[in-house]
Structure formats: structure tokens, C-alpha cells
Amino acid sequence: MSVYREEFLLRSKDVDMFRRLRSSELFRLLQEASIRHTEQLGMGRDKTLDRGILWVLLMQRVEITRMPEYDESVVLKSWPGKSMHLLFPRYYSLETAEGEPLLKASAMWSLVDEKTRKVVFPEKVGVVIKGAVTGEEIAMPRVVARGECTNERDFTVPYSFIDLNGHMNNTRYLDLAEDCAGAAAEGKLLKSIAVEYQNEARLGDTLHLRWGGEGGVYLCGETDRPVFRMQLEYT
User: Fold this and answer.
1) Which of 105-114, 166-175, 201-210, 212-221 has the weakest average pLDDT?
2) How far lies 134's CA from each of 2, 105, 140, in Å?
3) Fold equal for 4-125 and 151-234
4) Confidence class of residue 235 from pLDDT cuts 50, 70 and 90?
5) Domains in the chain: boundaries
6) Is the pLDDT at 1 greater than 70, yes or no?
7) Is 151-234 a CATH 3.10.129.10 domain?
8) What gap in Å lies between CA 93 and CA 63, rounded to an integer?
9) What number is the average pLDDT over the span 116-136?
């Protein structure tokens, strides 16, 4: 059974004004762990990126016990679930160096053709990842239900938000959500995150954002088609 493990010391760049790990930085850590473990499993860029095939996220889910803080050492673990035709489930856990559980997460990945943006059948390109079961898995992410929206604004995707896939990186949706809603700036504690990525946002696209909610924040964005939905729950 293959489980990826990496230890980090949280620096100033990783945390917010309350010295807690930023949600966007958490998503970056999860993303990078996924990439590094996939490379370790023999399915690196020579099998995908160099052949014009991109890994893309479809959904993510996080259940938080406590967000780690500045200057704290944390251990991130990640492992693949059993592949489901076109879908690649992946699980994560974060704990302190002493073993205190901090959070668990799950994600659903897929492969797309870089030029056509159409889904790629893994077996046709030789991408095979054997799943593992640790007993630490949380439920896989689900479609995010629509929420009530009382606010709206437009946002144009800047160059700094674009990643190597040529679209707005998944981590930036968390920054956008926390900039729109006031809960994070008020110091409220996140207890769960659910995100559904419906279509990509590319450089210069203008997203029409809508959000609202009490006790939690629902946020969605669209261009001429739905782009994403997100639900953030706070204590």
C-alpha cells in the first residue's frame, strides 16, 4: 500500500492575519502532494503533461478539526482510492508532528486533453494508479447544493491566477471566496469546505459571482456557463 508522507513547518507565507493556515495554502499543499505522489507511482509528466494530457480537479471536500498555526510542524499524508473509469479519487490527512489529527480531505481528479479540453480515457494513454484503503478515508466530495445569495459582483481573472493548465488554479477560488465573504476576515473558524469545479475560467474571463448565507458561506461563479460552486462552513 502506497501512502505519500511529507512534513512541513508553516512559515509566514502560509498563514493569514490570525496566524492560521490559509485555506488556499491548504489546497496548494493538497494539490502538490497529489502531483508528487503520482510521480512516485510512475505516472509523472512523461505520461501526462509532456503528452498534452492534464490532471484536473472536479471536486474537493475538507473536514477540519483544527487549522494549524504559524511555526507549527505538520505532516501531510495522501493516497489514491480505487479508480472509477474516468475518475481518480484521492484522500488526504493532516496532523501535527506529534500525531494530533487536524483535518481530512478527499478529491476527485480526471484527465483532459490539453488542446480539446475533452476527457481522456486513462486506459488509452496508459495511466494506471492502484488504489489503497487505510481506514482513514472520509466520504468523497459531492455536487454542491445551491444556496441563497444576497450579494453579487463581477471578477475578471488576472494573469497571476493562471496555472500551468492555462486556467484559474483551484487554490485561487478559496482566496476569492474569502475576499467576497467577511467570515474569514472576522476570524471565524472553518470547519468544512466543499467545492465543485464545473467549467474552467481562463485568463481575462469575467466571472459573475454570487454569495450569501448565515453560519456558512455559499459562493458560485459563472461566465456564459457555470464555473464553480463552493460551500464554506464555520464554527
Assistant:
1) 212-221
2) 10, 13, 14
3) yes
4) confident
5) 4-125, 151-234
6) no
7) yes
8) 10
9) 94
Q: Is the dihedral of CA 57, 126, 85, 226 positive or negative?
A: positive
**pLDDT value at position 35?**
95
Contacts of 224-227 with CB under 8 Å at 24 or more apart are 225/198, 225/199, 226/198, 226/199, 227/197, 227/198, 227/199, 227/200, 227/201
pLDDT in tens, 58-102: 999 999 999 999 999 999 999 999 999 899 999 999 999 999 999
The identity of residue 11, as a single letter, is R
- Identify the residue whose cell numbers are 491566477: 161
Do residues 97 and 143 make contact, with C-beta atoms less than 8 angstroms apart?
no
Superfamily of domain 4-125: Hotdog Thioesterase (3.10.129.10)
Cell of 122: 486513462
Distance CA 107, CA 57 (A): 7
Beta bridge partners, 152, equal 210
